Amino acid sequence: MCPYLRRVKIELCYDGERFAGWQAQPMQPNVRTIQGELEKAIERVVGERVEVLGSGRTDSGVHALYQVAAFSTKSTLSDETLTRAINAFLPPEIRIWRSREVALDFHPIRDVVRKRYRYLASDSRPFFPFFRRGTWILHRRVDVDLMREAAERLLGTFDFSAFQTQGSPRKTTVRTVFDVRVERIPLSSAFAFPKAFELGISGAPDVETTRERIDVPELIAFEVEANGFLYNMVRAIVGSLTLFGQRHKGFENPERMTEIIESRDRKLGGPTAPAHGLYMMNVVYSDDLK
Q: Which residue in the list 15, 59, 111, 123 is annotated as catalytic?
């Protein structure tokens, strides 16, 4: 053990289907959480109890393609050894991409300047069974162009109370949305990372074949990047956008989105999309923008 404390930043991904969200629940030891599993695995590796602080507390059933967390330790294990050793004790649904020592004052929540989420949905027919677990299956075809037009009204700094589920008080409900996208994407792009995210992970080589190709159904990807999110904000936005996409009564005009925002009334928006289609996609810190 070393005489000084180290701060370790971990970058990880997880399938949240079988977990009760990120946040550990000490009063319910039998409830599996991402934070709880990480803390148990890290303790077995470094020989001391640690608190793992994540950049965001994803809800039950929500996934992460890229999440950031940090903990402090006196362990002298190298970054590479920590990554391998911790992964060895984690359940298969959770994997650390990499670990690295950072400044002692690094705070995975306070230092965040942007976060990005992706939501996956499918309106394909026939229904593609492999989309079932990580995708919201829509039972009517949607107009992606109209959803995109409505989504553009979300860009900027607004009070997003109309897209907040009650239950998590905030000092302010004002947030800035930097980017929002709605598009049909091929299955191969469903788990693609932002261009700025590079971990040296290589894909499988292309394989030539003379077999006639089958057109695999596309997915609908909703992406929102903001300086912060209210409780269930992304899922509420997606649920509202689908009403535009399906041209529900009163949602034929994309200007309706502006009216919903200005109303600050959750009842005027659409349903909260199911958790299993949501993925934390990227976390950006001030140092990343230098």
A: 59
Model confidence pLDDT, tens digit, residues 85-128: 999 999 999 999 999 999 999 999 999 999 999 999 999 888 77
Q: How do the domains of the chain map onto residue ranges?
A: 6-102, 112-191+212-289
Nearest-angstrom CA–CA distance, 53 and 19? 17
Q: Which two tokens stand for residue 198?
A: 């590079």
59 is annotated as an active-site residue:
yes
Q: How far apart are CA 206 and CA 261, in angstroms?
A: 45
Query: Which overall architecture, per CATH, does domain 6-102 show?
Result: 2-Layer Sandwich (3.30)
CA 21 to chain centre: 12
Q: Which two tokens stand for residue 286?
A: 């001030």
**CA 177 – CA 175 distance, rounded (Å):** 7
Rounded-to-integer distance, Cα 61 and Cα 234, Å = 14
6-102 and 112-191+212-289, same CATH topology: yes
Q: Which amino acid is at 240?
A: S
User: What tokens appear for 277 in the block?
Assistant: 């289609």
Residue 190: closest CA among 94, 97, 22, 65 = 65
Judge contact between 116 and 282, C-beta under 8 A. Answer: yes
Q: Say which CATH topology domain 112-191+212-289 has.
A: Alpha-Beta Plaits (3.30.70)
Q: Which two tokens stand for residue 137?
A: 């299956």
Least confident of 199-203, 216-220, 269-273: 199-203
Q: Are 21 and 57 in contact (CB under 8 A)?
A: yes
| Alpha carbons 122 and 277: distance in angstroms, whole number | 10
Helix segments in 47-200, DSSP class H:
79-89, 144-151
